Amino acid sequence: MMERFQTFPVICEGGLDSNQNYLQLSAQKPGFATSLVNYESSLFGGYRKLDGFEPLEASYADVDDTGSEGKILGVVIYNQGIIAARKTKSVTTYKFFYWTSGADWTAYATGLTHTVTNVDKIRYDTFNFDGDEKVVFVDGINPAVLFDGTTWVDIDSADSGADYANAGGAMAVNDPKYVSLFKNHVFIAGSAADPHVVAHSAPLAEYDWTAASGAGQLNVGFEVVQIKPFRDELFVFGETKIKKIVVEGADFVIKDVTTNVGCLAPDSVSEVNGDLIFLSQDGFRTIAATQRNNDLELGVLSKNIQQDVTDFIADADLSQVNSVVVKRKSQIRFFFSNENLDTRENEGIIGCLKGTGDGISWEWSKLRGIRTSVATSGYVNNIEYVLHGDYNGKIYRQERGSSFDSENIISVYTMPYLDFGDVFVRKTIHKVMVFLRPEDEVVLSAAMQFDWDDQFVFNPDTYLLESSVSGAVYGVGLYGTAMYASAPIPVLIKNVEGSGFSTRLTFSTNDTNGSHSIQAVVFEFMPNGRK
Fold it and tell me: N or C: which end of the chain has fewer CB within 10 A?
């Protein structure tokens, strides 16, 4: 009888494929997932449960909880520190605050009065023209703001631009929504009064916006929804068109990129590993340089999750989409946030750039339980910080802990239905072997289902798979007293029951245990007979 037993190994790789072509997935993509929530493509292979997030400063979770109210309007990592903005209580203005580790948020004495009315979020860019780190803020209602670490000034079109104290000039727009640094110039766009205009400062002079010094304006011919540099070009996004600004001789020149593709979510535009990613009408696209000079590719990256992206586009407020890059993981996270939903109900998408035998590919999964009003990432003392502000007035740090701000992390990985090579042969499943990379105690629920969701097929009860870590860590425990930890079990074997023409497993957790990776699954089965 033993010779009739067969095994079918599945290497967990490829990410989410929500198109659900059962036969194709079984034959060609058995390691893909038909549901993948709060798992990421692991750097060590397989699918890894996400780390958690927690307040940036546990004792001072709120940004000025006594004097401010409402959501976090902006957050930036600047000059080895963190700056946040929030509405002032009882008045229609907002303030900037800076964070010091171990202390409360402290308000800047900016000397500026900026209305918060109709301000949705504050965007920024940082730069260094003269050895001093600077940042420029825009909010779509007030003038752009320059901060050099000491002094705050508005960029006002009525000012002379003669020096920092008189920042501005006739080429500036007074209510920009977007900002980028390009070729040693500050570029701003998104003015309600001049939505088709992209303005820039004089070279190496962020305060000088006079034509005589080299500042200027370019009319791109459509309403600008974002500007981002990529390589030696500045891309200007509209909802249905994209242009780019390039340098020819001593001038900035506008050139066409496409007239039938645009950007739907301004804050979806991010650079990841040398590609510029954005959300378009047909999914996530990339602007990537080709091998040919001055040529570009605008490929769709998210075909495997087309239905999920289409649903998000139809249902979400795309002005509230935020994105953040996790550089050490070659990963980008998109948050489709809704302040009217509980944090646990907010959703998003993770994209991870993976190297494969065929080159580079994108693997996708879904987020659930993170709500963002703004998001950013960067380095503080050479340590990567992934931050988001919430509508509750708090700043959180992602990639920390094993809970979502003390709430359980719900994670789900569903395999495709597998027919083991023949859809007309019934198979009895006897055993499942799960290869894990535990980082803490693991308690996995494993639900087995048969025959492509047939409602008349009986499925067994959910199985529980556990891998525990106990004892002290060497160098921490007291010698002669503590019991040192044994290695967690890397392979979990479970005897199972049930038969069908196809089967799949759904793994899930709902706890605050540390992360784990599911790297492979092996099914042991016996063919029964042909239908």
Answer: N
In one-letter notation, the amino acid at residue 531 is: K
Contacts of 470 (CB under 8 A, 6+ apart): 483, 485, 486
pLDDT for 102 equals 87
- Tokens (6 digits) for 342: 């509980």
- Picking from 78, 274, 275, 266, the residue whose alpha carbon sits closest to that of residue 179 is 266
CA torsion 517→418→27→300, rounded to 10°? -50
382 CB-contact burial (10 Å; exposed 0-12 / middle 13-18 / buried 19+): exposed
CA dihedral 16, 22, 28, 30 (to 10 degrees): 60
Q: Which of 460, 387, 303, 287 is nearest to 72 (CA)?
A: 387
- Give the whole-angstrom CA distance, residue 402 versus residue 369: 13
- Give me the residue label for tokens 């010094």: 213
Q: Is 350 exposed, middle or buried (0-12, 13-18, 19+ CB in 10 A)?
A: buried
Which is nearest to 185 in space by CA: 209, 158, 161?
A: 209
* DSSP 8-state class, residue 28: H
3-state secondary structure of 383: strand
- Give pLDDT, residue 115: 98
Distance CA 24, CA 416 (A): 10
Q: Give the residue ranges of the chain where pLDDT is below 70.
A: 1-3, 289-298, 356-359, 469-489, 531
Residue 482, pLDDT score: 56
Element (H, E) at 310: helix 306-315
Edge-first strand order for the sheet with 296-297 is 270-272, 275-280, 283-289, 296-297
Q: Hey, how many other C-beta atoms are within 10 angstroms of the C-beta on 527?
A: 15
At residue 240, the pLDDT reads 96
Could you tell me where the beta strands, DSSP code E, fall in 406-515?
409-414, 425-438, 442-450, 463-467, 491-495, 499-500, 503-511
pLDDT confidence of residue 337 = 96
State pTM to two decimals. 0.93
Q: Which residue has the tokens 């067994």?
A: 460
Among 114, 112, 134, 123, CA closest to 228: 123
Q: Give the start-end residues of each E strand in 273-393.
A: 275-280, 283-289, 296-297, 321-326, 331-336, 347-356, 359-368, 374-380, 383-389
How far does Cα 146 stand from its chain's mean position? 27
Q: Which residues contact 312 (CB under 8 A, 6 or more apart)?
A: 336, 347, 349
